[in-house]
Every structure is written in structure tokens, then in C-alpha cells.
Specification:
Layout: E1 2-3, E2 24-26, E3 44-48, H1 63-75, E4 81-85, H2 93-99, H3 103-108, E5 113-115, E6 124-126, H4 136-140, E7 145-147, E8 154-158, E9 160-164, E10 168-170, H5 172-180, H6 192-206, E11 209-221, E12 229-239, H7 242-253, H8 261-268, E13 279-281, H9 300-310, H10 317-320, H11 325-356, H12 358-369
Parallel strand pairs: 3-4, 3-8, 4-5, 8-11, 9-11
Antiparallel strand pairs: 1-12, 2-13, 6-7, 9-10, 11-12
Helix pairs in contact: 5-6, 6-8, 11-12
Length: about 375
Amino acid sequence: MVRSGACGTPSSPSCALGPTASSTTTSGCSTWPGGAALDRGAVTILKDNISWHYPFPSANTTPWQLEGTIRALRARGFDRLSCVQNKTEVTDAFKGEDLNRYTPVFRAYDLPVLFNSHERDTRWVPYRPKARMLALDRIYGDDLRIPEYFIGKNIVHLPTVKCHIYTTTTGAMKNAFGGLLNHKRRQTHTYIHETLVDLLAIQREIHAGLFCVMDGTTAGNGTGPRIMQPVQKDVILAGQDQVAIDAVAARLMGFDPMQIKYLALAHEAGLGVARCADIEIVGDVEAVREDWHFEVGRCFHQFAAWITWFGPTRFLQSWLTRPPMLYVGNFHSCFYHDVLHWRLKERAVYERWLKESEWGRLFERYGREGVVGDPQAVGASATGRA
């Protein structure tokens, strides 16, 4: 864990992974990329997190998080990097990477960007997990498919510290949801906690290495992952144990990780450590004692989800999640978020953040300059394809 002031000013994008920065790991794990966490001989996928294509603070991967991770990996000999975006029903990845200032970073560091929804970038191939599944087998049967491009490669997740209306918190484990699943995703929501555990088990089978850099410079309190109250917290978490990093983020937000179902299930399955007393914290150890008193809160979208996925009416799910009702649901989500909330409230919150927060001002700097660091100082290899 690192505070922004622990290794320089926010204008230094590499400070999050610099030599004085630190990570959240379980005891005995390799601390930084370059050790046991990642395989230098494999392609490394950067999986950013676009929860909302609009640049709402705390909802999406930040450009300094992205650039700092690229610089740190390249400095440690990881030259074969790529980024993979995923399609969802309610977010536009093309719009998201543009509005969130990723595109200039990709261009400056000559980073290939692939889309798992495009056949030219990856094929979806059948996969039979070795681990016992908690939910995916009952949803997919023998029709579970994963992106062929992911197999045998490292992956570095780039989520943010924020709440989630379905899972209480979201982070490293939830970030795999968009990348590894492309069909029947809506049907997994009834078993969302079990699904996240299954996806982590699959990741451990198919990836050469796993790591996560989680941005909490501005954290999201409330009904995430899109409409939240952004709160400046000035922390960045990093580690190879996906369960541990989510547990520490949950603890900071004020939740007991072992009371969050997906974390408790992953802990019990031996996929990572969720009990904070058993997690080694290095770096700013004082910061982890904080309690931000976050609350998920309530919104209308939760009522719709209760009807579809969690309540006694979920037997209607097969009808509600297929056309034409699917289109009605998608229209409602887009209108609710992109029209009502963004235009009437969240855009004003974003604009205030740009003016009043040091992170907002850094975001504007990315808008003006494209990148903050010098790409030539660490090299700019574009060999993401294996």
C-alpha cells in the first residue's frame, strides 16, 4: 500500500510501483512484478476496468494507474504487453478508453489494444475447468468458453477501490468477470459471489501469472460501480493475491472481508487469504488501520435486480434477460445512468473534481499532454501478440 506522498507527487505516474512503493500480499508471496507473481517469458495482459464510459472519478481505471503500471513492468523487463477490453451491454469500451484518457497512453507506449468481442483479436474456445465449480457448471454446462488469447499469459488487473450494489465491494476478483465471460453473463448474477470464485479458480489454471494494481486515489462510496460519491483517499494497493487485495480494500472501506460472501468463499477454497490478520501489509502500514465508513446504500437499480436475479420472481429471469425484454432493460440502464444521472448530477460532480482535487487536476493534465512520463525512458515495445 502506498500514499501519494510516500514516493513523490501525484504527477509521477510511476511512483505507485516505484522502489519506495509497496504492495498488499500474503506472507511469503513475491511482492512485485518480476518475481514469482508474473512470468517474464509470457505476454502480460493489462485488464483495465471501465465500469462507466464517462470519466466519473472512482468508477474507472485512472490514466496514472495505467501508465505507472506500464512503466513499472517495462522497467522490470516485461516488454511483451497488451491491453484487452471487453464489451458489455451498457458500457462502450471505445468511448470509455477515449474519455478516460487511455488512448494517448496506449499510443505513447505503443501498446496493442485488443477487444475480446472481436473475432480478429481472439476466439472463444471451450474450456473445462479442473477445479470444482460452484456455479458456472450449472449455468453453462458443457458450453463454458473463454478467450483463447488469455491462455498461457500473465494478467494484471487494474480495478479501483469502490462499492458495488451486488457484491458490496468490487476489485481484483470482479475485474475478471468482463474478460472471461461473454455469453449468459446475466444469468450468472443470481450466483454472482460463486461466479467470482469460479473465475478466480479458472484464472489460476490458465494464466502464467496474476497481479493487481488497485487505484484508491479517489475511492467510490455508495451505489457503485457507476453512481457513487467519490472520496479522495490517496492510496494505491498492489499484490499478487487477488483475494487479499480485495480483502484489504474492503477493510479500508469499513467492511469485514469475511462477511462478504465471495471473499469468504475464496478464502475457504484456498484461493487466497481474506482474513486481514493473516495478510502481510508492507509500505504504509498505518494507512490500513483506517476505516472510511463506506456504505453501499440503495438505488432503484437494486429493485430491478431483486426482481430479476435475487428475489422470488427470479424464475422469470429467462424471459427478462432475453429479447425483447433485454432491450428494455438495456434502454432503462442507459437512460438512467447516461441521461438522467450524468447530465443532471454526475457530470457536475466530475467537473468539481477536476477543479478541486489534485487527482482531477492530474486527470486534466493527461487530457492536455497525453502522458506524464517519458515513454523512451523505459522503452516502448509493441510485441503484445504471442
